[in-house]
Amino acid sequence: MKRIIASLLIVFSFFIASPVQASEEGGKIFQANCAVCHAQGTNRIMVNKTLKKDALARYNMDSKEAIVHQVTNGKRAMPAFRGRLNSSQIEAVAEYVLSQAEKGW
User: Fold this and answer.
1) pLDDT tens column, 35-63
2) Which of 7, 20, 38, 75 has a Cα-to-Cα distance from 81 of 20 to 30 A?
3) Structural domains in the chain?
């Protein structure tokens, strides 16, 4: 019985994305969709509204929920990505942005 459970856990673990895989996926999506304006956490349009940790905090964008909302719906010069990216892709981008902000881009 223990072998069966261990085998099932091993098989099941292949279907769950690890944090590293999620970060890699978020990074790929970010590079393909966001890096044109936000390379290395910068902001080419509104230079003070970067994706750096202090700016995210200053503009109340330092949570996954806030970033998901912004990416989904857009705001001012930033286009909405609803329809271009699905919800799991947008969440991966939000997690990536937060992790990169913590690392200091």
Assistant:
1) 999 999 999 999 999 999 999 999 999 99
2) 20
3) 18-103 (1.10.760.10)
